[in-house]
């Protein structure tokens, strides 16, 4: 299975919706698209919406951690929402939830970043 990446800018937030599998085959595409969108869109924060992400391996974790560090260096935040159980377990095991807040949906994630319309 492949991966689809949907990017949406909302004010100063980049919403990244991932659908499919984030693994060593697709990690570079996600890394490139997110980096470019963060820089080009002047995004201060990122919301990762993972409702349709069916699988992720350590390469995917590396991409997420790298973009988190990129945002943090710029004074921004990253939050995660709509995480399915298998990906949730990977986040727990890796310790990513210690640095990335998780929310039930995009609306709550936006609220946490204080950019609600």
Separation of termini? 36 Å
State the CATH topology: Transcription Regulator spoIIAA
- How many structural domains in the coordinates? 1
Chain-averaged pLDDT: 92
Provide the succession of SSEs: EEHEHEHEH
Shape field: globular
Q: Give the name of the CATH superfamily.
A: STAS domain
Got a strand count?
5
| Number of helices in the DSSP assignment | 4
* Beta-strand fraction estimate: 25-35%
Strand order of the largest sheet: 1-2-3-4-5
Supply the CATH architecture.
Answer: 2-Layer Sandwich
How many strands, what sense, and barrel or not for the largest sheet? 5 strands, mixed
**Which class do the helix and strand fractions yield?**
alpha/beta
- Cα-atom radius of gyration: 13 Å
Estimated helix fraction:
40-55%
Q: What brief labels describe this structure?
A:
117 residues; alpha/beta; Transcription Regulator spoIIAA; 5-stranded mixed sheet; 40% helix; STAS_dom; anti-sigma factor antagonist activity; STAS_dom_sf
Description:
By secondary structure, this protein is α/β, with parallel strands linked by helices. It has one domain: STAS domain (Transcription Regulator spoIIAA). The protein contains four helices and five strands; from the N terminus they run ββαβαβαβα. Strands 1-2-3-4-5 form a five-stranded mixed β-sheet. α3 (85-94) links the parallel β4 (78-81) and β5 (102-103). 29% of the residues are buried. Pfam families: STAS. Belongs to the anti-sigma-factor antagonist family. Keywords: Phosphoprotein, Sporulation. One of its GO terms (molecular function) is antisigma factor binding.
